[in-house]
């Protein structure tokens, strides 16, 4: 089965950001211990802590981490609600993905630092991309994808949807994003 095919010609994709300055800024999710996650993401994934904010009157803190400044890079925004130490992640969230030139080496580095590798490196089922999965301290999954070095290593958020075409229509029409890569194998069943 084909791994996937570009849905939009790459020349158009390359030209598009020069005209349309909108972009994904961040994904926000809740964690049970901000410092524990910051330590894991900086030491195991190589992210940098970009900024923190604390809102005591609302009883929550945020931390922003990524592989570059927010002005030019997609980042994760962690939210810690005072006193809440764990969350039910549910089944809709799939994974974040980090691109790296050597998944095997990154997995060994993470394992040596005590990281939880939940899927060993190797070609993705039904395709050829080399991937691995790592579970973070709250249970969120990060996929490591082997790719040539890229200015944007934090390259994907996988969410499970109930109707792929319905979501594509919504994202194209309402959010005005474009399909950058149409996978031939379907969303989860
Ligand atoms: C394209 C790459 O970024 C992927 O994430 S494909 C990874 C692949 N995904 C699925 O199988 C999705 C369906 C699944 N039922 C789900 O709901 O997660 C995957 O996880 N493959 C497993 C493997 O070991 O290769
Ligand atoms: Zn993925």
TrEMBL record:
Q: Name one GO biological process term.
A: methylglyoxal catabolic process to D-lactate via S-lactoyl-glutathione
Q: Which cofactor does it need?
A: Zn(2+)
Q: Which residues form the active site?
A: 143
UniProt cross-references to Pfam families, sorted A to Z: Glyoxalase
Q: Name the chemical reaction catalysed here.
A: (R)-S-lactoylglutathione = methylglyoxal + glutathione
Residues that coordinate or bind Zn(2+): 77, 95, 143
Membership in a protein family: Belongs to the glyoxalase I family.
The entry's protein name is lactoylglutathione lyase
Biological source species? Gossypium laxum
